[in-house]
Write a structure and sequence with these properties.
This protein is 42% helix and 20% strand. The protein is α/β, with parallel strands linked by helices.
């Protein structure tokens, strides 16, 4: 069973994203985190990489870019990362483009069709 990690400091958005992932594939185990440091600790302590990670860009304490920078120093980072933000700016897009692990930057709220498309295009089997 594959693990999917969702990180978002907004509790409503986190619940919606977790539910959306469950609709894509009910066999995945979804781990939701309301802060980047908590997710970082989970990823550091996990014996296997997640299938993929979806995370909000802007979070208090540690943003998505900081988490990925710290994670790449300490462990395997071969899983795809999908970012999401209510405000996808040019700066966010440019920073994301510099990190090969980031496969897409979504606008919030996530669109189910767009999410499915990007998962499939990144070799993630949804059934």
């Amino acid at each position: 069973m594959a693990n999917v990690v969702i990180i978002d400091d907004d509790p409503v958005s986190l619940r919606i994203t977790v539910a959306l992932i469950a609709d894509v594939n009910r066999e995945w185990t979804t781990m939701g985190f309301d802060s980047a440091p908590a997710a970082f600790d989970f990823l550091e302590g996990s014996e296997t990489d997640p299938l993929f990670v979806i995370m909000d860009v802007f979070m208090p304490g540690m943003d998505a870019f900081d988490l990925l920078k710290n994670r790449s120093k300490s462990a395997s980072s071969n899983y795809p990362v999908f970012l999401m933000s209510a405000d996808v700016t040019r700066e966010v897009a440019e920073r994301a483009a510099e990190i090969p692990q980031i496969r897409c930057v979504f606008s919030k709220p996530l669109n189910p069709g767009s999410l499915t498309y990007h998962l499939l295009m990144n070799g993630i089997r949804i059934h």
